[in-house]
Design goal:
Elements lengths: L2 H6 L8 H12 L5 E5 L5 E7 L2 E7 L6 H17 L8 E2 L8 E3 L2 E7 L4 E2 L7 H18 L29 H18 L4 E4 L8 E3 L7 E4 L6 E4 L2 H7 L8 H13 L6 H26 L1
Antiparallel strand pairs: 1-2, 2-3, 3-6, 4-6, 5-6, 7-9, 8-11, 9-10
Helix pairs in contact: 4-7, 5-8, 6-8
Length: about 290
Amino acid sequence: MHRLLTELVEPFDRMPEDAAVDLLEAEWGLTPHTLERLDTERDDTFRFDSDGLPYVLKVAHPGDDHALIDLQLAALAHAAAADPGLPLQRVVPSRGGSAWVAVDGRAARVFAWMDGTLARGTEPTHAQLRATGRMLGRLNLALRGFGHAASGRELAWDLQRLPALRELAVDAPAMLEIIDRFEIDVLPALERMPQQVIHNDFHPGNLLVDTSDDGYVTGILDFGDVVHSGRVNDLGVALAYLPMGSSPSEAALPFVDGFESVVPLLPEERALLPHLVSARLVQRRLLNELFEQ
């Protein structure tokens, strides 16, 4: 199995709840009154309350390079500074003033909890879809110019790494064809397009929303997949999760319009979007099947 895939499914011992409580008291001076484990793929995540305030503790997979945690937090800080109006998670520093601490070789960090409804399962209006696309455009623009030594990471969820998933599609000729076409035709063109660090995971499971407001998005979560890649990939990834409605373009058009109101695309980038959506759908299907094994 390709190394990128092995890393995704590498087993690890979950942190016990009492160890999480001890960690919070020792490193953050926070005493949880309630603590709940949240379901996550590759780390330990807990929601807890301390002195009446809600927080989230995230403890990285033991195999995760600490440089990647630093990348995620640095990207979050850069975006917040570049566009203070973005609804981003707030990092809670440790007692020592650090954004994260090491515990048994794992990187732990605490965020203030963000209230809201997950976008998953909601039915956004055209105005809300446009606002969501605009929000992604603002985030994409805020990350422009951000650099980090670890941003060139190899990541299975990076669209430009799609060919690495070929071995997962050996029994799916239609998906193999998409991967082959992507590698031969799309990837060379994509590599000539503007490149930058992108969020790379802007989907309904990572967005908090107010369904009664045209502004819609009230929170952007999870910088865990940030990577230096094609600028337009941020949009291609997001489009792959949109409701189709009566046609594939019904939701996509207002979303793209909103994005381009902030980040106008090159004609060549726009032409790549259908291929990027297809690539993400294949990537998502193959990796989700891998997780289910």
